[in-house]
Write a structure and sequence with these properties.
- It is a single chain.
- About 35% of the residues lie in helices and about 25% in strands.
- It is built from five helices and eight strands.
- The strands form two sheets. Strands 1-3-2-5-8-7 form a six-stranded mixed β-sheet, covered by helices on one side. A two-stranded parallel ribbon has the order 4-6.
- Strand 2, helix 2 and strand 3 form a beta-alpha-beta unit.
- Helix 4 packs across helix 5.
- The chain binds zinc ion.
- Zinc ion binds next to helix 4.
Length: about 210
């Protein structure tokens, strides 16, 4: 039985090993086009990877970004440049799982931090969005410093800022503070970052090469 499940696992591994990943489109936005917050001290280059056919539109991606910019701006972080990659992947790779995620990440590498816009998730519990920092990527280094957002995510802009903050802080911690972005429930009312969170975000992200 054990041998059989291993064989099945190996077969799945082989099936996932070489997915056809094709770049459909690549677009670059200057940070200024997305509204740099006043008096910023740190700059971030962000990659957004949209999986074609996963339910995300380019417009939806940009709208989420426009909402996330002022939230991260509270910490003096501005976007320097955003690169949008549209990838065509097999339908088997449209939903997030560690196994499915590492293949497009390997097949087409993009700068980090990177946000992947996927159809759904196979994780249980099924999170609408997930962040993979350094601390939770030891066994899956290909997807370190990435965010995975499903097409059904509520309040995409806030969710994007929340997950990016996890990556930048390299922490899965949540806050119980009223109105805080890092409350475990994403909501338009929860957008604030504290001074201590900002310090941690800037220091950790800079040390990890995710901010300049
Ligand atoms: Zn969270």
């Amino acid at each position: 039985m054990r041998a059989l499940s291993l064989a099945v696992l190996l077969a799945c591994g082989a099936a996932l090993a070489q997915p056809q990943v094709t770049l459909v489109e690549r677009q670059s936005f200057d940070g200024d086009e997305l509204g740099a917050p006043e008096g910023y001290t740190h700059r971030m280059r962000l990659a957004i990877v949209l999986l074609e056919g996963g339910g995300w539109t380019r417009q939806g991606a940009v709208l989420a970004l426009l909402q996330a910019v002022p939230i991260l701006g509270q910490c003096g972080v501005a976007l320097e440049r955003v690169e949008l990659f549209v990838l065509e992947v097999p339908a088997s790779h449209l939903d997030f799982s560690t196994a499915a995620a590492r293949e497009p990440a390997r097949a087409y590498s993009v700068p980090r931090p990177a946000v992947y816009l996927v159809r759904d998730t196979r994780s249980r519990p099924a999170f609408e969005a997930e962040a993979i920092g350094r601390g939770n990527s030891a066994s899956r280094p290909e997807i370190a410093d990435t965010v995975w957002m499903t097409s059904g995510v509520r309040d995409p802009g806030v969710a994007l800022a929340h997950e990016l903050a996890h990556v930048l802080m390299d922490s899965g911690e949540h806050s119980g503070e009223e109105g805080n972005l890092m409350r475990d429930e994403t909501s338009l009312k929860n957008r604030r970052l504290s001074a201590a969170q900002c310090t941690r975000l800037r220091d950790t992200a800079k040390a990890n090469g995710l901010l300049k």
